[in-house]
What we know:
Helices cover 34% and strands 28% of the residues. The chain is of the alpha+beta class and 172 residues long.
Amino acid sequence: xxxxxxxxxxxxxxxxxxxxxxxxxxxxxxxxxxxxxxxxxxxxxxxxxxxxxxxxxxxxxxxxxxxxxxxxxxxxxxxxxxxxxxxxxxxxxxxxxxxxxxxxxxxxxxxxxxxxxxxxxxxxxxxxxxxxxxxxxxxxxxxxxxxxxxxxxxxxxxxxxxxxxxxxxxxx
Length: 172
């Protein structure tokens, strides 16, 4: 279980004086702790020590539960922003129509989630004699996914087949 950071609130603040910031973000100056607490109570809010190591400590007048909720929401949002992975889907040149549809729907899910998709058509043995079949499969998949993803570059020939990286379309 992840523990939330501990903030001193209201009567738990032991510093004799604190620098007070109101709910609008304006500084009220350095006040005695009991006076700052009285101002917070008048507004129906909490006095929260946000910078205990400062001299004097910084305290804000705010709704503590709402503030914690917003901080948690921002943290989750940052994690979501960072997460953009490269997902790989491999298909053979002789893949069946239904199997190809399943791969396309998986790729669509990945693209809608904001991930890049690397689509690889791989050849085995004698399949390498007909690379145009693999290129046709890649072009078919990119046409099916044109609403949610677009190719970063044209399909490229690799050692064992063709590869293309699809990136999400904005607003898709």
